[in-house]
Amino acid sequence: MSGDLYSEYFGFSERPFKILPDPDFLFWSKDHRRAFAILEYGMVTRAPLTVVTGEVGTGKTTLIQALLGQISDDVTVGLISNAQGGRGDLLRWVSSSLGLPFSAEEDYVTLFNQFQEFVINEYAHGRYVLLIIDEAQNLEKEVLEELRMLTNINSNKDELLQLILVGQPELQDMIALPELRQFAQRVSATYHLDPMDTVTTHQYIAHRLKHVGGNGQEFTPQAIQYIFYQSQGIPRIVNKLCDLALVYAASEQQTHVDVGTVEELIKDGIVKPMSPPPLFLTNRTDLGERAAR
């Protein structure tokens, strides 16, 4: 097998199941369309705070990248990923995301005044500032409250600053805390992105295969059903399983990925499944009958 792993063997233009987020491969499931609609709603209505959550690997970062590809010239964007720390650190992350100069010696008041001046100046030139914070579940409660205070820059008539927070489910738990009720009141729209169901998983795999020139049937229905149960519908795990299954299939010169191929890579321990499949799935005849329904 050549250095491209399996693309040449199957006739793909590139690997269809890369792990890194890529908006070109985005599959618009019902859940992803709704989550993206909430993000767009937040931008169009100039909502001060919009929140989208989901389990690890459900495609949140890919949605952000898709959103960034549609942002107009009147929006100045600051993207913050994996921000950590307590009060005072946030403004340094914000300044860095917007390209504002700062030094480690500058105090909170100086950093805030510089940020406020930047936001007002952008507005004076017909632009508003959008801060997107990915992995926002890593923020401390005090930092979320600090974010709320930043939205006080907005006037009663015009919104100069918008915040979009994207994170794992525990972010919703934090927002629901009594001490963050003022923060929760500023949230205009929120959505939780669920894992894919079995039908969506079949559609998702076929979509990515066709995107790279495949026919969408390189995996048998039984193999996809097995992948669904092993991944619990988490796209990132689906990608890992499918990518390695294609490697295995190509190395054995198989024309399709069957359930035995997926079982083999699981047995080899290369990918850790989310959970073992139900007992009935150990019967391949039963598996095929259920997948075909």
From TrEMBL:
Q: Where is the AAA+ ATPase domain?
A: 46-215
A molecular function annotated in GO for this UniProt entry is: ATP hydrolysis activity
Name the Pfam families on file.
AAA_22 (PF13401)
Among InterPro entries, the record links this protein to: AAA+_ATPase, AAA_22, ExeA_AAA_ATPase_DNA-bind, P-loop_NTPase
Gene3D superfamilies, per database record: P-loop containing nucleotide triphosphate hydrolases
Per the record, the domain of life is Bacteria
Question: What name does the UniProt record give this protein?
Answer: Type II secretion system protein A
Organism of provenance:
Cognatiyoonia sediminum
